[in-house]
Every structure is written in structure tokens, then in C-alpha cells.
UniProtKB/TrEMBL annotation:
This is START domain-containing protein. Residues 1-112 form the START domain. It comes from Triticum turgidum subsp. durum. Signal peptide: none annotated. GO terms for cellular component: cytoplasm; nucleus. It comes from the Eukaryota.
Length: 112
């Protein structure tokens, strides 16, 4: 497990949230992201099921990630959770190489 804290100067919490959540824009700045596809969306609770293919160096296989992610606002902060779902992975057995151990938790807040 890795824990870090990042400070973005001159950026609102909304801008940071949108930066991490915008996969179309991520294709422009993340050279490892080959493609993505939204598999399902649940607007009532803000959850999205997404598929990523990430490129790794030639001596490694590319990795497929299928995960659920959710974001919600609480006061002036945002909580963002991205996590692989074992249930989804079981239905994707035809994937060549996929990651089954990926979790990302973000807490985004402005200066206090």
C-alpha cells in the first residue's frame, strides 16, 4: 500500500476532481493509457464501471483494468473511490492480462 499527499497550487477542488475523472483528457496526458470504455453507469449513486487498457514496456504485457469508480461531494470536499471488482473480473476471463489488485482512494479538498 502506498499513501501520498499532493498539493496543487492555484487549482480548485473541482478542477482536480475533473482532472482525475476525465478519461478523454487522460488519453492526452497519460502515455500509458491506450484506450478506455465505459461499460455501465449508475447515475443514482454516481458509480461508473470502466475498462482501461494500459501500455507497458515491450518486455511486459499490456494490462487491462476493469473497475468501478464513484465520486461524491461532502461539504466542500470530494471523495473518490476506484476499485477492481472481483465480480466483474470473473465475467472477463477472456482478458489476456488483467489487474485484480487495484484500489485508489482520493480525498480532495481546498485550502482551509
Amino acid at each position: 500500500m502506498h499513501c501520498s499527499q499532493t498539493i496543487f497550487e492555484d487549482a480548485t477542488p473541482e478542477l482536480v476532481r475533473d482532472f482525475f475523472w476525465d478519461d478523454d483528457f487522460r488519453l492526452k496526458w497519460d502515455p500509458m493509457l491506450v484506450c478506455f470504455k465505459i461499460l455501465d453507469e449508475f447515475p443514482l449513486n454516481g458509480t461508473t464501471i470502466i475498462h482501461w487498457i494500459k501500455k507497458f514496456p515491450f518486455f511486459c504485457s499490456d494490462r487491462e483494468y476493469i473497475f468501478g469508480r464513484r465520486i461524491w461531494e461532502s461539504g466542500k470536499a470530494y471523495y473518490c473511490v476506484t476499485k477492481v471488482s472481483a465480480k466483474i473480473l470473473l465475467s472477463m476471463r477472456n482478458c489476456k492480462t488483467f489487474s485484480n489488485n487495484f484500489e485508489l482512494y482520493l480525498f480532495i479538498q481546498g485550502s482551509t
